[in-house]
Amino acid sequence: MGGGRELLVDLNGKSERAFEEQDVCVRAEVGDTVLLNTTGVRLGLGTGGVHFVVSAWEKAGLGNHDATELPGHIMKLRYTPLQRAVHAVEEQDHPLHEHIVAHESLDHVPVVICELHSMVPAVAMSLQYELKQSGQAPCRIAYVMTDGAALPIAFSKTVRALKELGLLSGTVTVGHAYGGDLEAVNLYSGLLAAKHAMEADVIIVAMGPGIVGTATKYGHTGIEVGQVVNAVHTLGGDPIVVPRLSFADPRPRHQGISHHTLTALGQVALAKATVPLPNLTDEETAQIFKQIRSANLHDKHQLVGVSGRSILDAANHFQVPLRTMGRTLQEDPAFFFAAGAAGEWTSRLIKKPLRHHAVRSSAGALLADKN
């Protein structure tokens, strides 16, 4: 996974934050003049509201990467000044290429589909915590990052923390997202790589930090939740959707069950998914079920009731920060209970004896060596 770091830059006499991708830029040092993309800060964006280092001005052109010497011929950020070649797992000279050729099915692996990046740690922590509490071995979770939001996976501090704790076994960046342990051309081959090259017991799919929204029914990147359901169904996986719930969001369209979830599952998803719903107050539950009935989701998908409360203990145990739209677990419990419920539900599907993880294939060993 490509690295990145946060810098403090002096901009017009003010100290401001900037993100530097270390595999794109020549490393800036104290005193260097840097070229910044300041659009996110100027627009007052949330997750993307930091400056991005384009280059260290005096060191422009002094990069240490010679593209002709690197493997890979698949371009991401195609036809832009920042296009980059990656060694995609689908390429014939990739050491794990055989796993893409040999497999066309996900073999019923559970695939947890999240709209927001902030759901990922809650799902992973709850799932692994539930297994630990029942005396089971940790499972292998692969995270497939789409290109619906941030494109460099290095921008995610969450992914870095989850990998350091062993809660994620590996990452796949698909589409124009980049920097994962494996690169894939699209979601379908990325899912197959997660299952067969990474030997995942569970796959989590979500965009990176940030989301595009316009307060319209279809004008948001959360629409991809329905598209991922379709892809997982096509490949023979078990789609499990984390509903976006909140009673703390000030925007009416995101209160109860978000209109993003209602649209993605009601109009975009063409196949059945399992939707775990956490235990909430009677009033909150009544509102959510009223919205579900209005969208006919109960006729189209499998709704299951799950506690969701394990995220409370899991968050204390693993200590990975939880925050969505600036709100903590305590400030927006319904949001994180929904993600926790998905983790709990999935843990029931994949419980295996400890010896399951004692044997590793050559593919798993190769990936471990890469990291």
Automatic annotation (TrEMBL):
<dbReference type="InterPro" id="IPR024479">
    <property type="entry name" value="DUF3866"/>
</dbReference>
<protein>
    <recommendedName>
        <fullName>DUF3866 domain-containing protein</fullName>
    </recommendedName>
</protein>
<dbReference type="Pfam" id="PF12982">
    <property type="entry name" value="DUF3866"/>
</dbReference>
